[in-house]
Amino acid sequence: MLSANEIRKVVAERTAHQKGTGKRVVDVREEMERLEERGELVIHRIRPENRPVEASTLFGWTKRIPTDRLWHHKSCGQCGNIPGYPSSLLWLMNETGRSYLNEPHQTSCTAWNYHGTATSNPVALAAVAARNFHRAYETGHFPLIHCGTSFGDYKEMRKLLVENTEVRHKVREVLRKMDRDLVLPEEIVHYSEWVHAMTPEILARQRYPVKGIIATVHEPCHYYKMVPEDAVYDDAIYAGQRPAVPSGILMALGATVADYSTWYDCCGFGFRHILSEREFSRSFANLRKIRPMVEEAHADVAITSDTGCVTTLDKSQWIGKAHGLSYLLPVLADVQFAALALGAHPYKIAQVHWHSSSTEGLLTKMGIDWRTAKEEFQEYLRALKAGATPELLHPAHGEIETFFAVNKGQVLPEASGPAPTSASASAPAAVPAVGGPAK
Amino acid sequence: MSIVARLPRRTLSLTEEEEAAPPTMELTGRRRMTAEERGTAATIFQEFRADRRHREFVVGCLNCGECTTGCPAARFYDFSPREMLQIAQNGDATTLWDAMQEKIWACCQCYTCNMRCRFGNDIAGIISVMRELSVSHGLESTRRTLAPFGRSLTLLMTVGTQVASDMIQPDFFRDWGPFATGSDKVWQVSAEVMRKAIPSDVLQTTRSSWEVSVQTSLELFRIYEETGVLDMLRGLDPDLTEMLIDIIEERREEFVEARERFQDQLAGQTGPVTTFSG
Amino acid sequence: MNPILVLGGGPAGLSATAELASLGAPTLLVERESYLGGNPKRWHYSLLAPDLRPAEEVMDPLLERVTGRPEVELRLGTTLTKAERTATGFSVALRSADTTVTREVSAVVLATGFDHFDSRRKFEYGYGRYPDVLDFKELEGMIHDDKVLRPSDGRPPKRIAWILCVGSRDVQVGNPWCCRMGCAVSIKQAVEIRQKHPEIDAYVYYMDIRTYGLWEDLYWKSMQEYGVKFIRGRIGQVTVAEGGSRLIATGEDTILSRPTEVPFDMIVLASGMEPGTGTKQAAELFGVPVGPEGFLTPRLSDLNPVDSGIPGVFFAGAATGPKAIPDAVTEGMGAALRAFQYARR
């Protein structure tokens, strides 16, 4: 087997000389600098207050991962049907004392509309990306992308906006009509990279050892197969042959990450398939992913780091009974697993009740008293039903924000040097306590 | 100069005459196309070949099949990315037309083929170009394929998120089991209360994935107007398109009213406040 | 006359040396390794395509022609470290283990050859990770000794697959060229195994079969007489099953247009040819033009494929691109003649 350094060299060769096609993978970040000098765009830079941590990408390039003062770019599917996904991430940020904005002034990346139904086009996708980037920029918070597809799409759109003058000019024209201009973040950052960068601080707060847990990782396609050069790899994880996220955090927490033969396959989500061709999605998920995970690796849990993958792998299993496939392997996002290991409330924070494949067996194995937690949650639901005020991880937004994307800590394009004025409403200290560890 | 770079860009490049009158190849046993369909197929073919992405995405092919090796759709459908690339590469309007009827929709857009391709093609990308054309030309088969997506399309275009928790209805998602929908049978509370139990106010809605401010939704719609997406959609479903415009009109009125209502607060904002008027 | 330097003791270099000696020219044969014979010797090639003659029968006469000849000075375990043009040719520095000597030579034949592609670089196939995934140069030695056994458990395989074009015709690893040998050698290996062990099933996964010219006979016979099976399509990934005891080759059968997954006991990779380390070094020392692939480039590859375009420097064998042994031998002869003419000018 090649050593990590040898692999790094091979991978570098794969990009560096691409003999034959004349195609060379260019570091889009360098081109962004040139375009900024020419006044064609503004780079949203990672600043000291973002407390960046360095990581390494597929080609050994350095990627800076901001860990503080972040703008949450939420995911449709996560918020829609696996809400424990974003809430676990917000909870981890509170626990580790990181500030953020979670606002209503964000649209989805709309990439579903392109990769699913093709009812959009690349110029529109690029404009949507740029609009969201600009919004993050004007709040002085660095965008953190929750969804794997959004991450992949934004990497593609950043490349398109940098490499294609025509698209860039058209998008700027559209943005001006809404009082915005072209801003591209220095790095496109996936939340799982934040988790990777925060590993030491997460470990410092670990409450439940997860030594006996066997986890199988499904690597989200759009994390590393779209614009591959922008995914994070680490020599210590699979000798750099597979992405470092989300395997890294699981290994660090002490779980056994087990290999299985179909690790490279997609989950079966397929965009439109998960809604209108579910026979395909569930066949693929059960036969190509869940079965090898259970039968080859004897997994206790499947861990992944994208919206569609959690949905497909989790929701597809229940119906498997009809075909004699009764695996019901729990499927969680890396952040949910990490939050649980740190003592997050399984229902109030990790919101495991939205998952089709029961997680209670796993919780027991982790040493978490889910029965008490479940009773607490049921009581909480009764209180909410009776009109109690919900517990929140961050302050609620004002009524004005139902309509207007008002500014918080505005940073003007000219003023990329000094820190933005702090009108931010996201200091974790001001956050009311919620959840708390289960006993 | 390397071996491949020395070769002409595409050995199957078309002459000017061929470009003007796209070749057609009648496959044995296929249904005869109507004159109208032939015309549409010819136009689609020309637009397809003129798209800059065709030049960038389709490089060449050794027919090695590594793309199909990793393809999830190839396992369950009569589909292979290799076949799609061959169709994209070769100059034939009717074969392209045939592929656009059904096959292009099998693709999962997972990009596994792209990562594997030893010739450096963007196969998932070129399939997207075919899909776009099938939408903008309002192909009957495309209309049927996309029929189940009216609700999510409406939500996305008028609000900005693709799904809403109230879309995951137990009746439609019975195969997801009793827990997926936060069902009241399990927890004895309504869907609204289940959402209230999520510890972030932005997520406490059942009508979209998260609450999107009106200004943000209107900005998104403006993007769709300006980038030709509404025109694409008109080709597919004119009624739906008019409905979207009506919904947005209402939201614009709401926005203008709110501007008056929040006049004082807006004036008190630090930093420039948007001048976006909807 | 100062001696003519032949750099490299593989088939091309041996052929050039033998011809020069027969012309009565003093010849200095320099070889980096401690033995002569190049890659065929290094990897213990078994039968050689296309005539299926044992490698020894081809290589031994070549070796005999250069050993013990008074015209030939042999320096093994020696590398070239410096080359400077002089009025009569070149002054070259030769380093063996601990000493460096300087010699005057009248002309140079670069027969520095190729290296096999390092199959670990195509890590989809798990070479170096799964013991039963072999490089075909390793199988040569096994066939030669008639010990075709699974390295993992020492048991004889029941079913073997060959994957062609590993590290060839692939921009993912930066090698878009064809190795010219992989098809013939793999088929030959399958035939050899089927001859001795008809109970072993042999499958060849291919994109194109390039048994060019008269070698086509080998391809046909492999099916007609030895029942070797050919599946058109590449394997995209090798994984393991049954607790690691069986390899699973995943690919597309591009004739049937279906994905395939087939269990095998052993998988053999037909690794491509890359410019040898010595070729790269020689190019730098003599200032010889090199193509984007890293092979030496003749001035006129059609009219005179052994001339470098630099006075006194000639090429032979796989230093200018993948080549079979007969071609390497022929080029050795041509380069010898051209170098002799130059030295005597």
Element layout with pairings:
The complex is a heterotrimer of chains A (439), B (278) and C (345).
Chain A (H helix, E strand, L loop, with lengths): L3 H13 L11 H10 L4 E3 L8 E5 L4 E4 L4 E4 L2 H6 L2 H12 L4 E2 L10 H5 L5 H18 L2 E4 L2 H16 L1 H12 L6 E3 L5 H7 L1 H5 L10 E5 L2 H4 L7 E2 L13 H7 L2 E3 L13 H5 L1 H18 L5 E4 L2 H9 L15 E3 H8 L18 H7 L3 H16 L54
Helix pairs in contact in A: 2-7, 4-16, 6-7, 6-8, 7-8
Chain B lengths: L15 H5 L14 H16 L1 H6 L8 H4 L2 H5 L4 H9 L3 H9 L10 H5 L6 H14 L3 H7 L3 H9 L25 H4 L3 H6 L17 H13 L2 H8 L1 H24 L1 H5 L11
Chain C lengths: L3 E4 L3 H12 L4 E4 L7 H5 L4 E2 L4 E2 H12 L5 E4 L3 E7 L4 E6 L4 E6 L1 E4 L3 E3 L16 E3 H9 L14 E8 L15 H15 L4 E6 L9 H9 L4 E4 L2 E7 L4 E8 L4 E7 L1 E6 L1 E3 L1 H10 L26 E3 L9 H19 L2
Parallel strand pairs in C: 1-2, 1-9, 2-5, 9-20, 11-18, 12-13, 12-18, 13-14
Antiparallel strand pairs in C: 3-4, 6-7, 7-8, 10-19, 15-16, 16-17
Question: Summed up, what is this model?
Answer:
Helix content of chain B is 54%, strand content 0%. Chain B has helices at 16-20, 35-50, 52-57, 66-69, 72-76, 81-89, 93-101, 112-116, 123-136, 140-146, 150-158, 184-187, 191-196, 214-226, 229-236, 238-261, 263-267. A five-stranded parallel beta sheet of chain C has the order 5-2-1-9-20, sandwiched between helices.
